[in-house]
Amino acid sequence: MANVVVVxxxxxxxxxxKIVDWLSEQAxxxxxFQGGHNAGHTLVIDGVSYKLSLLPSGVVRGKLSVIGNGxxxxxxxxxxxxxxxKAQGVVVTPENLRIAENVTLxxxxxxxxxxxxxxxxxxxxxxxTKRGIxxxxxxxxxxxxxxxxDLKNLTTLKGKVERLLAHHNALRRGLGVEEVSADxxxxxxxxxxxxxxxxxxIVWKLLDEKRKEGKRILFxxxxxxxxxxxxxxxxxxxSSNTVAGQxxxxxxxxxxxxxxxxxxxxxxxxxxxxxxxxTEQDNEVGNFLGTRGHEFGTVTGRKRRCGWFDAVxxxxxxxxxxxxxxxxxxxxxLDGLEEIKICVGYELDGERIDYxxxxxxxxxxxxxxxxxxxxxxxxxEGARSWAELPAQxxxxxxxxxxxIGAPVALLSTSPERDDTILVQNPFQD
Length: 429
Known about the structure:
Layout: E1 4-8, H1 16-24, E2 29-32, E3 41-45, E4 48-52, E5 64-67, E6 72-73, H2 75-87, E7 97-100, E8 104-105, H3 108-119, H4 133-141, H5 154-175, H6 182-196, E9 200-201, H7 203-212, E10 217-220, H8 246-249, E11 260-266, E12 269-271, H9 284-292, E13 305-307, E14 309-310, H10 311-320, E15 325-329, E16 339-348, E17 351-353, H11 360-365, E18 367-374, H12 391-404, E19 408-412, E20 420-422
Parallel strand pairs: 1-10, 1-11, 2-5, 2-10, 5-7, 6-8, 7-9, 11-15, 14-16, 15-19
Antiparallel strand pairs: 3-4, 12-13, 16-17, 16-18, 19-20
């Protein structure tokens, strides 16, 4: 019986929500292992859309869902998301959701610092969501973070807040903004403590017990592997590790708990925010893909940049995340194109290479090398078997498999969860 990690194999927005929801029916526990409320999943169930930013997708299905220690949690955003789901008929309680006691909290001063940096004219614009994720992770590794368990002991909380502010108020003075008082942050935290603390648990212990009981565990991340702080297009990345290896670190289970890594892969490429994008099509093709694919961010509503499928990048992610198989999504968006291009290599300073270099300057200089395939006129939308797909669409999928070095385990042909062609069930690896 397999435990499965789901990762985005590109820059995020690959359609993880639907696939995680599809898999969650077979899982007993769903774990969110990194990121914050800066990324979203959209689930479509019986025609109803559920937009999740922080909560694991399993809560909509009533499965035990877990927010691991690798996540940074904004307690006020958490409470708001729980209330939003309640209005849609989904009740989130400690019976179906647990939060790691050692999860780092996002505070208002983190959001303010995030916005101050992003809006400044100096330095590099990253394209953050300004929700405080990066500054919260900075405090975590700086060993001054406020963690969920700290809200349980109010006698020591003030001292921890003052220690945190010794750092942040020095930053604020340098940025020319008003300092924050310890009482303000203390009140911010105590006002929400009673609503969040009931969900607190020793997550590593809970998951170890579930694993020993033979329960199926599904690990879900946010963003995509190319936004990984180490392996992504640095500095235009998120502030956490997004590759599959983080699933272990981000919840406290060892790597031997992972049996299958499913890479969610869009049939073309998109990116939100700043940074290199070798196959971007800032033209009619890009507009076609963006319009047909409804390419707007779940959390921010930002328009996504669109381009051809980049096999070099996905092949690299297959390696860095140890991907066992992919779920290919949004194939139907390519319907009607006369021809379809796939990036199969790069040219860098006159030489051909088969990987994305780590250097920011080199990433900006790479030029895509394309293969051109014939498109198809027939619709693939809603197909639930290979036999329903046009021959050229099947050829496209098979060529993608060959180029990235990983098989297609699932093929998604619309946002509806049942419009899925199953080749291999990751839970039955």
